[in-house]
Design a protein that fits this description.
By secondary structure, the chain is an alpha/beta fold. The chain has a five-stranded mixed β-sheet, with helices on both faces. Strand 2 and strand 3 form a beta hairpin. The radius of gyration is 21 Å and the shape is globular.
C-alpha cells in the first residue's frame, strides 16, 4: 500500500491530508506556516506537527509516505521552496514536491485541465492555465505591496477608512453614530485589536499589527449595517474581479474573439468561504465583464489538489 501526503500551507492555517491511491485517510488543520510571516523555525514547528498529527490519525508513520506535495505561499522563490522541502524531508523519506499554493488550488478545481482560480485568504492571487498548458498569474506579490482583496488587505483598508472618516469628523470618540459613519466599524476593530482609541488603533497599525485578524470584525460591522465596512467589502470584491480579468485576458482573449466557449473559474480561500457578500459581488463583476465565464459557486479546498498532485508519479 502506497501512502501520499498533501499540504496547503497558508498564512492563517495549514491543512495536511494523508491518503492512499484512491481515498483521503485523515485531514488535520493547524496554524499558519507561511515562512515570510512566521520564519523558518515557526514553519518547521507547524508543518512537522501537521504531518505527525495527520499520519497518526491515519495510523501510519511519516516514513511510510511514498510521495508528498506541499503547496506553500511564496514557493515560487527557490529559497523558500528549498526551505520547505528541507523541513518536510526531515521526517518524510519519500519523494517531495514543493509548489506554489495557487498550483494546488488550480489542481483542486480543474485537475490538469484549463481554468482560472482566484484565491483570497490571508493573501490573494489569480492563477490560470489554458488548454495548451500556458499559465498566467496576477497579484500575489506579498502583503506589503499587493494581495488585493485578501483578509490582510481588507483589514488594512478598513483601518485606513476609519482613520480617514475620523479626519473628516474630527471626533475621537463619537457619541452619535449618525454623525460618524464608521463608528460601528471602529467599535469592531477596537475589540479585535484590544485597543481603546483612534490613536491606539493607528499605533497598532503602524507597529506590525496583524491586519488579517481584523477580517471577521469588518464582516461583523458590514452585517450590522456599517456603510464604510460594506464599502470595504465591495472594494475587495472589485479588486479580486480585476485580478481575475487580467488572467482571463492573458490566457483566453484570443479564444473568446474567435470561437467563444465557456471558461471555467473557481474560488478558494477564507475570504470567499466566509464572506457571502464578497463572493456574490465578485461573481457579478466577473460575469458582467466576462459573460462566457462559468464560475463554480462552491469554494474549493486546495489541499485536495495537493493530494492529487502527490499521487501523480514522475
Amino acid at each position: 500500500m502506497a501512502y501520499y501526503l498533501g499540504i496547503d500551507g497558508g498564512g492563517s492555517k495549514t491543512t495536511c491530508v494523508v491518503g492512499d491511491e484512491s481515498s483521503p485517510l485523515a485531514t488535520i488543520t493547524v496554524g499558519g506556516s507561511n515562512i515570510t510571516r512566521v520564519g523558518e523555525a515557526g514553519a518547521r514547528e507547524v508543518i512537522q506537527s501537521a504531518i505527525w498529527e495527520a499520519c497518526q490519525a491515519a495510523g501510519i508513520n511519516p516514513q511510510q509516505i511514498f510521495r508528498a506535495c506541499i503547496g506553500a505561499a511564496g514557493a515560487g522563490r527557490s529559497e523558500i521552496a528549498a526551505t520547505v522541502r528541507k523541513i518536510v524531508a526531515e521526517i518524510v523519506s519519500g519523494e517531495i514536491e514543493v509548489v506554489g499554493d495557487m498550483e494546488i488550488a488550480l489542481a483542486a478545481a480543474f485537475g490538469a485541465g484549463p481554468g482560472v482560480i482566484v484565491i483570497a485568504g490571508t493573501g490573494s492571487i489569480a492563477f490560470g492555465r489554458d488548454a495548451q498548458g500556458r499559465t498566467a498569474r496576477a497579484g500575489g506579490w506579498g502583503f506589503a505591496v499587493s494581495d488585493e482583496g485578501s483578509a490582510h488587505w481588507i483589514g488594512r483598508t478598513a483601518v485606513s477608512a476609519v482613520l480617514r472618516a475620523a479626519d473628516v469628523v474630527g471626533n475621537d470618540e463619537p457619541e452619535d453614530d449618525r454623525e460618524w459613519p464608521a463608528a460601528g466599524l471602529f467599535r469592531e476593530l477596537k475589540t479585535a485589536w484590544s485597543v481603546n482609541s483612534l490613536e491606539q488603533l493607528a499605533r497598532t497599525a503602524n507597529t506590525n499589527g496583524d491586519f488579517a485578524v481584523l477580517f471577521p470584525a469588518v464582516l461583523a460591522a458590514a452585517e450590522a449595517g456599517d456603510a464604510v465596512a460594506r464599502q470595504v467589502n465591495a472594494q475587495a470584491a472589485g479588486e479580486l474581479a480585476r485580478l481575475a480579468g487580467i488572467v482571463l485576458r492573458r490566457l483566453f482573449s484570443g479564444q473568446r474573439s474567435s470561437a467563444p466557449s465557456a471558461v471555467p473559474m473557481a474560488m478558494a480561500g477564507g475570504v470567499f468561504r466566509h464572506a457571502t457578500t464578497i463572493r456574490e459581488l465578485f461573481y457579478n463583476e466577473v460575469r458582467a465583464a466576462n459573460p462566457d465565464v462559468v464560475l463554480n459557486p462552491e469554494v474549493v479546498d486546495p489541499v485536495h489538489g495537493a493530494l492529487q498532485m502527490a499521487r501523480r508519479v514522475g
